[in-house]
Amino acid sequence: MVDVTPVEPLQLGLEGMPRRLFACTPSRLTTWQDCPRRYRLTYLERPPGVRGSAWAHKTLGAAVHVALARWWSEPRARRTPLTARTLLERAWPRAGGPPDGFADDAQSAQWRVRAGEMVERYAATLDPDDEPVAVERTVSMRTDALALSGRVDRLDRRGDELVVVDYKTGRTPAADDDARGSLTLGLYALAAARTLRGRCTRVELHHLPTGRVVAHDHSDASLAAHLARAESLADQATSATEDVAAGTDADLAFPPRTSSTCGWCDFLRVCPAGQAAAGAPRRPWDGLAAALPTSDEAA
Ligand code: SF4
Q1: Residue whose CA lies nearest to ligand 1 atom number 7
Q2: Which CATH number applies to 131-234: 1.10.3080.10, 3.90.320.10, 3.40.190.10, 1.20.1250.20?
Q3: Given this model, what pLDDT does residue 7 score?
Q4: Which residue in 42, 28, 40 sits closest to 183, CA to CA?
Q5: Strand, coil or helix: what is 5?
């Protein structure tokens, strides 16, 4: 899923005045939740924090998303599994282009084939006549505290309801609880309902390597809980920004929160705490080993 809200610094409210709406994507909120330092380097630093090189597994994921989005733009007769593979090939970065995280052209070509097989298998499960309500659609909503927007991979209609569909390309299949607990999916359901003026309570993770779908049907209460969580995170992030403006050291207001994900963090090179937690440095293509099962595993 691709975030679309432009990066912008927070505007601070004057004392006694209500705060401005916190403009954000779900990704911005979850970044704050995962690691305040990464949040600062991603969204607040000017110029932006220096990122590491591209990751090959992210390049793969982006190409898959592009291919599946374009598949629905094809004429009905061309919505075939083979077309999905062709679109993946077209979306794949060309040899000699900008850095894409692959070790070399041979490795890139090998993974292009595997990703092509994956989208072909997935497209074979789709009904080309079952047109989605929207593909790569930006949805948005406002509350008293948030101006939230983001782009949904796919919105289906089942009966009278909208369904949020999110593609996953990582090797680990989504767990049963992942759809229920995903703040991002909950917010997308709320924003989709608001933008398209329909009811949207069902969210689905489509794990392409295995074809497994993990779904959850939210209640109004569970969606309200996600929204309350989002507003709380926004409030925390705003308070930290205000603290820095008032003189607090940025490393205190936005502390590193180390975890097993530090090794994949774009800012590892400038984060000593993350380096200590990450262990051996990862190469830009190391995530590929976790990106797709082998053909045998997928069969
Ligand atoms: S390396 Fe880890 S602790 Fe450092 S910014 Fe990244 S996620 Fe946060």
Answers
A1: 262
A2: 3.90.320.10
A3: 40
A4: 28
A5: coil
The confidence band for 174, taking pLDDT boundaries of 50, 70 and 90, is: confident
Q: How far apart are CA 244 and CA 264, in angstroms?
A: 27
Q: With 90 as the cut, is the pLDDT of residue 14 above it?
A: no
- Token digits of residue 87: 């679109």
Ligand 1 mean position, distance from CA 260 (Å)? 10
Instruction: Please state the atom number of ligand 1 nearest to the C-alpha of residue 277.
Output: 2
Least confident of 143-157, 161-175, 206-220: 161-175
- Residue-level pLDDT at 175: 85
What is the structure's pLDDT at 19? 73
Q: Which of 66, 46, 62 is nearest to 54 (CA)?
A: 62
Q: What angle do CA 160, 164, 297 make, to 5 degrees?
A: 125
Please give the distance, rounded to the nearest whole angstrom, from the Cα atom of residue 261 to the centre of ligand 1: 8
State pTM to two decimals: 0.89
Domain-wise residue ranges, the chain: 56-128, 131-234
**Which residues, judged by CB distance below 6 Å to any ligand atom, belong to the binding site of ligand 1?**
35, 37-38, 256-258, 262, 265, 267-268, 271, 273-274
Ligand 1 atom closest to Cα of residue 36? 8
